[in-house]
Description:
Layout: H1 6-12, H2 14-34, H3 38-55, H4 57-68, H5 75-81, H6 93-104, H7 108-111, E1 114-115, E2 121-122, E3 126-133, E4 136-143, H8 150-165, H9 173-187, H10 190-204, E5 224-228, H11 235-238
Amino acid sequence: MSGDDPLSFRFRSRARHTRRLVGAAARAGLKRLARHSPLDDLVLGEALVTELDAMKGMAMKIGQILSYMDGALPSETSRALRALQRGVKPAPQEIIEQVLLEELGAPVAERFDRFDPAPIAAASIGQVHRARLDRLEVAVKVQYPGVQETFEGDMGQLHRIARIAGLATHVDGAAIVEDLRARVLEECDYRREAAHIQRFRELLQGTPGIVLPEVIDSHSTARVLTTRWMSGTSLEAFL
C-alpha cells in the first residue's frame, strides 16, 4: 500500500492529534479549577471527538468506553463522546477495497453481489459495510490497515493524556489504558471474534429472545469478518 494514501497519512499524523488532545484536556482542567460551565464541558467533548475519531485505534476506544460510563465525565462531555460509538470519519472506500482484495484474494465486485460503499458504522478498529452475497444480506467488518501497529505508540501518549485529563475528571485513565491495551489487541483478531460468535451460537441455541448472526467463513479472515445481516437498534436506544 502506498505511503501516501489517506489512511496512512492519518496514522502518521497521530502526534499532531495527541498534541491537540493534550491541549484541550489541559485547557478544560484549568477552566474547571477556576469555574464550572456546562459549555466548557461540551467544548471539551467536541474537541475529544474530533481528535479521537481521527486517531482511531486505542485512542478512539477509550472515548467510546468513557461515553458509556455514567458519572465518569461531565454530562455534556459524555453526550458529545457518544458520537464515537458509531464513528464520524470513515476510511476512504479505496482503502477498504484494498484490504478486502488482500484478505479475500479478489476484487470486491467478484466476491460480493453488492457492496455498499458507505459504511453503517466506522469504529475504532474497523468499519462495517452492508453487502449481498448469494442472495443473502450480510454485514462485512473490515479492519483498518496498520491499526495494530499504532497501539504500542499510543500507550505512552495516552498515559500523558490520562494524567492531564485527571484535572477535569475523576476517571482513572491509566488503568483504563492498560486494560484496553490487552482487550483491543484481542479484538484485532477477527478469527477469534468469529470463534466466539460460533461458540455462543452453540451455547444459546434455542434460547428465547436471543439471536446471534451466522458467520460466513468463506468471506472471513483475521482482518475481515462477514456475518448474516441482522436488523436491530443501537445499545443507547435499547437502554
